[in-house]
Amino acid sequence: MSTALPVLKADDFASDQDVRWCPGCGDYSILAQMKKVLPEIGVPPEQTVFISGIGCSSRFPYYVNTYGVHSIHGRAPAIATGLKLARPDLSVWVITGDGDALSIGGNHFIHLLRRNVDLNIILFNNRIYGLTKGQYSPTSVEGQITKSTPMGVVDHPLNPISVAVGAEATFIARSVDSNIKHLAYTLKRAAAHRGTSFVEVYQNCNVFNDGAWAYAQDKATREDTTIELEHGKPMIFGKDRDKGIRLNGLNLEMVDLKDGKVKEDDLLFHDEQANSTLVYMLSRMRRPEFPEPIGVFRDVRTDTFEEAVHGQIDEVVTKKGRGDLQKLFNSGETWKVN
Ligand SMILES: Cc1ncc(C[n+]2csc(CCOP(=O)(O)OP(=O)(O)O)c2C)c(N)n1
Ligand code: SF4
């Protein structure tokens, strides 16, 4: 006789910890959507692990009733890679902020993406250092006044999606904290991908950078300021669905569909398996010239890091048999120190 497994609910993934984010922080919405989709993803809490660095966003593992590691600043990718290699059966999530992933963790972030370890990275991008009370981050915009840039930021901001394309990530997506349906869908898509999935979430820090993504969050404006990427569909956007994106030579251009001169077939059709050059071009679409894409930019399948590593180990074991660690220790020149 078989016993049916219990059907899990969002509450089964809620921890008993007091949430210490500021009231109104976008992090709450991401947490709520994650708890909602985890039962649908179907991996039990005891086989799920959240690994974070340091930052407000990185407090996330405390608030989910799974295994978790609140690690060191920028180093979650290294810990997550080690864990996934040792335990490929676990569902591993890296939770990080724009400062954590792109500043101190920039190096680790890039190598995780290029290696294609089978795990999910969710980057909470609020364009500020929240936990340390409002210094500028690698995604802060030029001219932004912050605690550490009282005269305005002079750096050019990093575009996380462009970085991911450059590192040849196999799954790249963007969503918005307040667009809960879209966020839930995107998290599920990330979980379904085999390889590193990278999701940038526009997240509001209402205390130190309020309104950084207001145009993409606000229901009244978001249809005109963002464009939802849908595989196989023409790139159309706007409240009245009367604007589109067309490829003109090596450039993307925005076109008006109102007067009927440009037809739907003339537009760019989104392809999640398109070449990296095109995905890079999409990643450069920024306001006010363009609507900013949300959705899945890229989803392709290649070998994962752990498949390659374990494949290599199996091959060597087949050829040479299992290694003997004790023999290896004793194989070199040894001497005694008196
Ligand atoms: C090695 C090290 N350097 C610096 C810090 C200080 N520090 C803590 S969190 C943080 C940045 C967090 O920003 P972000 O990743 O954007 O996360 P948020 O708090 O905005 O979610 C910094 C610089 C630290 N904890 N450890
Ligand atoms: S400081 Fe900003 S990011 Fe941190 S909890 Fe408060 S609102 Fe959220």
Folded structure, characterized:
This protein is α/β, with parallel strands linked by helices and 338 residues long. It contains 11 helices and 11 strands. It has helices at residues 27-41, 76-86, 98-104, 106-115, 160-166, 180-192, 214-217, 222-225, 276-283, 305-320, 325-329; strands at 48-52, 67-70, 91-97, 120-125, 171-176, 197-202, 226-229, 236-237, 243-248, 251-256, 292-299. Helix 1 packs across helix 6 (180-192) and helix 2 (76-86) runs parallel beside helix 4 (106-115). It starts with 26 loop residues before the first helix and ends in a 9-residue tail after the last helix.
Work out the helicity level. Answer: 25-40%
Order of helices and strands: HEEHEHHEHEHEHHEEEEHEHH
Mean pLDDT: 96
Oligomer: single chain
**Largest pleated sheet:** 8 strands, mixed
